[in-house]
Amino acid sequence: MLLSTIDIALRGAIVALLLVLAASLFRGFGTVLAGRLAAAFAVGSAAHAVTSSIGTPSPVSPALAPVIALSTGNVVVFWLFARALFDDGFKLRWWHALIWIVVVVLSLTNCLFIAPIAMMRNSFVVGEGVVTIVSAMRSSFVAINLLVLGFIAMAVVQTIASWSTDLVEGRRRVRVFIVSAAALYGGLNAVLQIVLSGNGATEIANTLNSAALAAVVGSIAIAMMRVDGADLFPVAPEARADAGESAMAESSAADQKLTDALMRLMADERIYRHDNITIGALATKLGIPEYRLRRLINQRLGYRNFNVFLNNHRIEEAKAALSDPTQAEVPVITIAMDAGFQSLGPFNRAFKAVTGVTPTEYRRQNASAV
After folding, report:
1. Left if phi > 0, otherwise alpha if psi is -120 to 50, otherwise beta: which for 330?
2. Cα Rg of the chain, angstroms
């Protein structure tokens, strides 16, 4: 009885904190995709706090089934949130919504149809063996949790793959903590669901689960309050330009010299053309610590991602080549490779993100303007 009371109290506190956090995120960063996804993730986490249960669930009421489905679909939101948080240029596509709908419908079907049937005591005979519907329910239950683990794994991969190119030191620290903490809890929860499925839920397991969730949510809330929101979420281009001008006015003469040296490497040596150029290699070439180069490119030049910084220089070279009448017969792929891109696909996407048109369209427009 005591454990049940503690469990309910923890869940109530978690839901209240998450809803306040969601409202705060939406109010402060509702115009930014990562901010909206963070708010949606907080709401879905609140649904999880209400419905989470370790072990085989009891029969679900039709009114609670949509909340459970929303909780399950939240893992897709978590994956998208991690992508948007680590990639300022990430955009939602129609198929992202389709993936979320599929996961929600799968969970809803499990709650409304598979689980209730599994609670029946009847069984049916297939050939010479008896196959219980309970085993079918368990298979569905395990499949959903394996799906959850899959999306968490993709979010973690996104975290690791993009972390090294992030130029915002505050965001590098905090967002890795947020994604790692959420992934750790979600992964452990899914594993426990699979291991304990069929063994029945215990008060101790559910209370510990709620306590762990409360610790994660509280830690994330504290971490987010200790960092500037503009560091965690990308700001509008105008605000970024203003921030860059402000930082430039306050920077030292030494930073100005380093900036000049960096731009000479870009313009004269065209170091962005080098294969697999990293921020560490560039810092070594300038003879400064890596963290200082990150801060220089971020605060002095206004970039939040090292790859974006490199690609902008590559695209400027490609634009000049595409506008040059003497290179009208040079294939686009050759121009892309000469500028430092490894393949045509990333070049086309980066070029269109900057100019609004494809390289071929850009060349055609400049040819007709001559």
Report:
1. beta
2. 26
- Please give the distance of CA 230 from its chain centroid, rounded to a whole number: 17
Dihedrals phi, psi of 52, to nearest 5 degrees: -65, 140
Lowest-confidence segment of 92-101, 189-198, 246-255, 351-360 by average pLDDT: 246-255
Short-list 102, 84, 100, 103, CA closest to 92: 84
Separation of alpha carbons 304 and 199, rounded Å: 49
Residue with tokens 């297939």: 126
N- to C-terminal Cα separation, the chain: 82
Tokens at residue 354, please? Answer: 């900057």
Do 321 and 337 form a contact (C-beta atoms < 8 A)?
Answer: no
Q: Contact, 76 vs 103, CB < 8 A?
A: yes
Interval 249-293: pLDDT, tens:
445 777 888 899 999 999 888 999 987 889 999 999 999 999 899
Taking a C-beta distance cutoff of 8 angstroms, is the pair 170, 225 a contact? no
What the block records as the tokens of 199 is 């063994």
Neighbours of 199 (CB within 10 A): 11
pLDDT tens track for 149-165: 888 888 888 877 888 88
Inter-residue contact 328 to 335 (CB < 8 Å): no
User: Do 301 and 244 form a contact (C-beta atoms < 8 A)?
Assistant: yes
Distance of alpha carbon 160 from alpha carbon 204, whole angstroms: 34
